Amino acid sequence: MVVLQLQFLLVPLLASIMGAAQYMMQDAALMNYIDRRLLSLEKRLEKCNQDILDYVEEFRDFSKMVLSRLAGLNNYKAEVKSEVENLQTRIERAQRDIDYFGSVTDSHACIEVHEDLVKQQLFEEAEEKKKLKLMLNASCDHMLTGIKSLKIVKKTGDKHGSWMKDPGKKHTKIYLLNGSVNNVILEFADIMTFTESNHTLRARRVTLPFPWEGTGHIIYQGFLFYHRYGSLNEIIKFNIQKRNITDQMLLPGAGRIPAYQLSPSTKIDLAVDEQGLWAIHAEPDTGGNIVITKINHITMAVEHTWDTSCSSKDAEAAFMACSTLYVVYNSPSGGTSRIRCIYDILDAVNTQEIPVLHFPKRHGSHSSIHYNPKEMQLFAWGDGSQIIYKLHTKQKV
């Protein structure tokens, strides 16, 4: 009986001892696995550290070698630069010596050649002036010295426009061209008809095939010469009586900028004086200065062009009188108009002696000013008013 009781007690004890031994063996295997993994990682880290040290050392050696090579190149560059500068100095010295000896041995020949060139240039300039005088009417010898009176004939139309007589015809007709873009001319029998209150009913209407641009048109010898709207620099010659286009031309260099800064709608201003038909415009190539061109009104060919010293800045209008350009200036807000730049193509006018010429009793601006050589008056359009200015002149020096 006692033996059976001991047997029952030993069986559980042995089972528990065997289970504990089994757990101990599993823990030992786990510890062994962890130890081996750590050892492997430690070896890898040690190799990585060594590789980094090797890379750092290699980079340092390479940097020392590169810096050494660069230092050598800089020294070589400095030596070469010094040699080049030395050679350049010697060449310049030799060139100065050669120039000196050449000037000493050939001084008389050089002076003679220089004088010949000057004489040739003076001769060519004199011949050019002779040709210009032959082309122009040499009998035109007066110059403007003052604007002595004005008369406001009528106030009609827009702020911008032109009105004029035809100086090439004996009739007394008045022409009104209203607006900076339009295609209808109003023709009146005389100035009395024009001043009537119902003047538009008494006017003959002439419709153009193409509208004009700006206010720089002119009527001469029965033809209207105008800048065609929408074109860069096309000038049309229109027969007023027959109502058809008889000719046209392109004016070189014109149309890119306004002829006058204060009249931006006018790119080409056509004018008439004792010499015939002219074109006034400005070009960017001349710094905005005004250019004048003589045009043959019959053939519509350019005869000559002059670059003037008159600026288009703050200019509102200009006109030609006796082959001389008179430019009218004002302030952007409007004020007293005055002529303060004159250009005579034959150099017969001493522009330094001419004072600034003011327009009398005018505090506004001009849209257009046209000179009538037959009556020696200015037909101007100012703020919708049609004005006549009488001129004071004297003989050119």
Automatic annotation (TrEMBL):
<keyword id="KW-1015">Disulfide bond</keyword>
<feature type="signal peptide">
    <location>
        <begin position="1"/>
        <end position="21"/>
    </location>
</feature>
<keyword id="KW-0732">Signal</keyword>
<dbReference type="GO" id="GO:0007165">
    <property type="term" value="P:signal transduction"/>
</dbReference>
<dbReference type="InterPro" id="IPR003112">
    <property type="entry name" value="Olfac-like_dom"/>
</dbReference>
<dbReference type="GO" id="GO:0005615">
    <property type="term" value="C:extracellular space"/>
</dbReference>
<dbReference type="InterPro" id="IPR050605">
    <property type="entry name" value="Olfactomedin-like_domain"/>
</dbReference>
<feature type="disulfide bond">
    <location>
        <begin position="140"/>
        <end position="322"/>
    </location>
</feature>
<keyword id="KW-0175">Coiled coil</keyword>
<keyword id="KW-0964">Secreted</keyword>
<feature type="coiled-coil region">
    <location>
        <begin position="38"/>
        <end position="97"/>
    </location>
</feature>
<dbReference type="Pfam" id="PF02191">
    <property type="entry name" value="OLF"/>
</dbReference>
<feature type="domain" description="Olfactomedin-like">
    <location>
        <begin position="139"/>
        <end position="395"/>
    </location>
</feature>
<protein>
    <submittedName>
        <fullName>OLFL1 protein</fullName>
    </submittedName>
</protein>
